[in-house]
C-alpha cells in the first residue's frame, strides 16, 4: 500500500455566473472538456477554504454516477493570497465567479494536469479512505477527504 495522499471531492451542484445552478454532472463535464481543449490542464476551485496540500492527485466523484475524473495536482493555493500559472485556467462557465466571489471567499484552488475520465468501477478496490480504510467508491462520509492507494 502506498501512503501517497489523494484528495477526493464528491461534487455537488454549483452556482455559476448569473446565479444559474449547475448540476454536479455539468461541473465534472465542464472541467473535463476544458482540460481536453487545454492540453489536459484545468483549475478546479473548491467550495471551501480548506486546502488539501499534502495530496499529489485529485479524484472528482459524482454522487450518483459511474463517471469520475482523476488528475495530477500541479500546484494549489487559495484565491486570497496565491496566484496560479498562466498555463492553467478555470472553465469558462466559472470564470466570472472565480475572479470576483472566489477571491473574496479565499477558497482553495488546484491546478490540475493529466486529466483522465474514469468509470467509477475502475476506482473500486484501488483507493481507501485514509482515516477508516473504506473503499472510496463506497464511502458515504463528508467530502472532501484524503485517500491512499491500496
Write structural notes for this entry:
This protein is α+β, with helices and mostly antiparallel strands and 150 residues long. The protein has one domain. Helices cover 16% and strands 34% of the residues. It is built from 2 helices and 9 strands; from the N terminus they run βββαβββαβββ. A 7-stranded mixed beta sheet has the order 4-7-6-5-1-9-8. The protein has a two-stranded antiparallel ribbon with strand order 2-3. A hairpin with a 5-residue loop joins β2 (14-15) and β3. It is globular and about 40 Å long. The mean pLDDT is 82.
Any key phrases for this structure?
150 residues; alpha+beta; two-stranded antiparallel ribbon; 2 helices; globular
Count of discrete domains: 1
Number of strands: 9
Strands across the major sheet, in which order? Answer: 4-7-6-5-1-9-8
Shape: globular
Count of alpha and pi helical runs: 2
Report the portion of residues in β strands: 25-35%
Q: What is the distance, rounded to the nearest whole angstrom, between the alpha carbons of the first and last residues? A: 5 Å
Spatial extent as radius of gyration: 15 Å
Amino acid at each position: 500500500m502506498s501512503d501517497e495522499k489523494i484528495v477526493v471531492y464528491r461534487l455537488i451542484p454549483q452556482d455559476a455566473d448569473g446565479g444559474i445552478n449547475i448540476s454536479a454532472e455539468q461541473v465534472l463535464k465542464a472541467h473535463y472538456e476544458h482540460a481536453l481543449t487545454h492540453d489536459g490542464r484545468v483549475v478546479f476551485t473548491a467550495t471551501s477554504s480548506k486546502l488539501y496540500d499534502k495530496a499529489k492527485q485529485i479524484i472528482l466523484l459524482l454522487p450518483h454516477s459511474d463517471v469520475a475524473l482523476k488528475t495530477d495536482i500541479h500546484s494549489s493555493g487559495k484565491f486570497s493570497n496565491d496566484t496560479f500559472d498562466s498555463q492553467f485556467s478555470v472553465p469558462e462557465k466559472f470564470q466570472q465567479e472565480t475572479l470576483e466571489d472566489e477571491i473574496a471567499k479565499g477558497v482553495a484552488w488546484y491546478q490540475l494536469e493529466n486529466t483522465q475520465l474514469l468509470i467509477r468501477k475502475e476506482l473500486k478496490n484501488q483507493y481507501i479512505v485514509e482515516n477508516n480504510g473504506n473503499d472510496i467508491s463506497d464511502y458515504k462520509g463528508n467530502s472532501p477527504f484524503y485517500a491512499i492507494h491500496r
